[in-house]
Amino acid sequence: MDCEFVPSVCSYCGTGCGVLFEVIDGRINRTLPLKSHPVNQGKLCIKGWNLHEYINSYMRLKGPLVRENGRLEKATWDEAVNQAARRFTRIKEEHGPDSIGVLVSAKITNEENYLAQKLTRAVIGTNNVDHCARL
Amino acid sequence: MDMVKAAKELLLQDRVDIFLGYHKLDGHQIPHGFTKARVADLDQLEISLNRYPLEKIACDLAQKDPTLKIGILARDCSQRALNLLYTWDQLNPENIETLTVNCCPSSLSTHGDCSYLKPKTTGEYKKAHGIDYNDSPKDFMAEHDSQDRLSRWMYEFQKCIKCYGCRNVCPVCFCKECSLEHPNLVEPGVLPAEVPIFHLIRATHMAGRCIDCGLCEDACPAHIPLRMLYREVNDAVSDIFGYVPGDHIEKSPFSIIGKTVELTPAPMDV
Amino acid sequence: MTLKRIAFVQELLKFMGLEGRLHLEWISSAEAQKYVDVVTKFTEKIRNMGPNPLRAINEMKKAG
Fold first, then answer.
1. A22 and A65, same structural domain?
2. Terminal C-alpha separation, chain B
3. Which contiguous run of DSSP H or E holds residue B22?
4. Nearest alpha carbon to residue B72 among B52, B89, B88
5. Torsion of CA C41, C45, C48, C54, to 10 degrees
6. Average pLDDT for residues B29-45, to the nearest whole number?
7. More confidently predicted of B84 and B189
8. Which of the two residues, B130 and B92, has the higher pLDDT score?
9. C4 contacts in B (CB within 8 Å)?
10. Which of A99, B265, C11, C57 is the most exposed place for a label (fewest CB within 10 A)?
């Protein structure tokens, strides 16, 4: 049996608490707070304590799905991205760019958030961009 | 270092399959399971300044494989936790080898404040943050009247953000179903947690369990003086039941699973 | 065992500042008079102590 610990950063909110995953035989079994982390100093909230549950959840989305005839079907990334681009272009042409809003997330990195707002402002052409951690 | 040599011997002589200790990774002292296949890693074995519930990790491993032989780096509090877990049949003492290390080599760490095991002293971290909760329960009782005590505890409990960290980090919380998650006892989805019932349920369940390691207070984001509360619980248990949890391996007075009793068959009165 | 457990809960409640609100008594189904006495005495005691302070706190919390 193999048991190791992997320090990481909580993916829930923008605070960035240090967490420690207990990995037994390649599977994350438990989450502990990283005691030496300067941000959370060995403390976590209830979401952080239960990080391992969504990683192991059977409902977790592991690939793109595209809705066809009312049903979600597995698709490749190329198909999914092309479909999204096509639909967005159509909506923009029919209803104008302000009919689209983009909500970005604290779960992705700063750089990805920057890219998302760039896409919204420069490509879609709207200022409707917001962030879940903008309290 | 003697400790490294002893741990290596345990692994090489096949007395343990996995050895739980600490090593340094990315500048953090974190627990690690050392194995025979990578025995050279043991050169990096450390007595971490940060305490983690190694006994809880051992329980996780034992649940996956009950025959697994586990070696543990054990401080005094770990030893007490292990004794308690043997008592409650969560671990098999035959499968556990311990390497005892000195408890809290320095003032344990800025976060893991063990220094107030001595009553009336305040550790560095608590001093720096102006927290002075190191009264012994007896002094607290003597210095405050009942109204004071109630308002003080209600103040402490209302800070709770219901992270369940005290339970999650506790090395002796091993129940599969937890009363704190029972919707009839603690209303789910309400903040602050239902006071004081949430904390009192946990306090009563700590009776005969709490081994005073202080990990719960370390993990509490709201700085609730849980250790003092549970210490009072322990004092009451030792006064009333004459039982000190984790002191040595003995049957707990709180265990409801007792000896099997055979009733002698007797004719029924008609 | 019950005696000890109740003694423990009484001790905990005392530490919380809620002493005197829990009472344990053995009464057989044949001891009607004892039942009346115990209940009357305890009710009186509780009434003199006034309402549970937790209730005021919880109502305050609900009111915001």
1. no
2. 77
3. strand B18-25
4. B52
5. -140
6. 89
7. B84
8. B92
9. 240-241, 253
10. B265
Q: Are residues A106 and A74 both part of a single domain? A: no
Same domain, residue pair A73 and A109: no
Structural domain including C59 reads: 2-63
Nearest Cα neighbor of B117 from B46, B239, B217 is B217
Same domain, A90 and A109: no
ipTM confidence score: 0.82
pLDDT of residue A100: 94
Are A48 and A80 in the same domain? no
Residue window 9-48, chain C: list those with CB within 8 Å of chain B.
Answer: 9, 11-12, 14-19
Q: Under a CB-based contact definition with an 8 Å cutoff, are residues B12 and B36 in contact?
A: yes
Q: Do A68 and A86 reside in the same domain of the chain? A: yes
pLDDT of residue A124: 92
* CATH number of A35's domain: 2.20.25.90
CA distance, residue C39 to nearest chain B CA (Å): 25
Facing residue for C17 by CB, picked from B153, B241, B253:
B153
Burial B171-187 (b: 16+ CB within 10 A, else e): bbbbeeebebeeeeebe
Structural domains counted in chain A: 3
Tokens of B158: 């209302």
- Verify A-C touch: 3 or more CB pairs within 8 A: no
Which range marks the domain in which residue A113 is found?
Answer: 97-135
User: ∠A54-A57-A59 over CA atoms, to 5°?
Assistant: 110
> How does pLDDT run across B38-85, given as a tens digit for each residue?
888 888 888 777 788 999 999 999 999 999 999 998 877 788 889 999
Domain count across chain C = 1
Distances (CA, A) of A109 to A13, A129, A131, B267, C43: 11, 16, 12, 77, 63
What is the C-alpha separation between B64 and B192, in angstroms, rounded?
36
